[in-house]
Amino acid sequence: MACAEPSYARDMTGKAGIGVVQTTDGTPYLTVRYWMSGAVLELLASYGSHSGVQSLTNAASSSEIRAALGLLVKIGDQPRASLSVGLRPWLVYHAESQPQAAVSTGEVTRYGLELPLQGELFLTDNLGLSGSIGLTAEIHTVTTYANAASTSSVSNQVLDLRLGGGFAGGMGITYYF
């Protein structure tokens, strides 16, 4: 017993947390995280809506729904920090309309996959700051309608592959309970 070395690693197994994070694709999310033995499961979601008046007769509105699921595997551990690598598929749906005008309306569907390398610094036993960098692959489909009442549309797909993102990756804060 006298020869045994103490373990300084933080045991997060069975802990859940809620927080906010900006992922490597630059999208902000509300996050629910759950630590399993050596891995963390993440559920990420957000919603945004905007409505503004462009003229007296032309009101534009847009809304966006975002969702992601992540699995990060711990590859390093210290008393106040951990390092993980993982996989995070995501989906963003953005719709825009101008119902009072005979101009185009449309929608954009973005989906992709992140391969984040994420470090988390535990400020207290319940509060963690995270930062990540990684590869992001994205495909987005743009559909444009001739006007708000039209069913005819034009669609195109674009593949976008990039390294990093805003802030050289993403940042977040999580409160664990």
Describe what this molecule looks like in 3D:
With 177 residues, the chain is mainly β. Helix content is 0%, strand content 69%. The chain has no helices and 9 strands. It has strands at residues 16-22, 28-36, 39-53, 59-78, 81-97, 105-122, 127-145, 153-163, 170-176. The protein has an 8-stranded antiparallel beta barrel. Strand 3 and strand 4 (59-78) form a beta hairpin. The protein is elongated. It starts with 15 loop residues before the first strand and ends with a strand. Residues 55-59 have low confidence and may be disordered.
Task: Provide a concise account of the structure shown.
The protein has strands spanning 16-22, 28-36, 39-53, 59-78, 81-97, 105-122, 127-145, 153-163, 170-176.
How far is the N terminus from the C terminus? 33 Å
Strand content: over 45%
Helical residues, percent: under 10%
Which stretches of 5+ consecutive residues score pLDDT under 50? 55-59
Give the C-alpha Rg.
Answer: 21 Å
Element string (H = helix, E = strand): EEEEEEEEE
Instruction: State the major sheet.
Output: 8 strands, antiparallel, barrel
Explain the layout of strands and helices.
Layout (H helix, E strand, L loop, with lengths): L15 E7 L5 E9 L2 E15 L5 E20 L2 E17 L7 E18 L4 E19 L7 E11 L6 E7 L1
Antiparallel strand pairs: 1-2, 1-9, 2-3, 3-4, 4-5, 5-6, 6-7, 7-8, 7-9
What are the key terms here?
0% helix, mainly beta, 177 residues
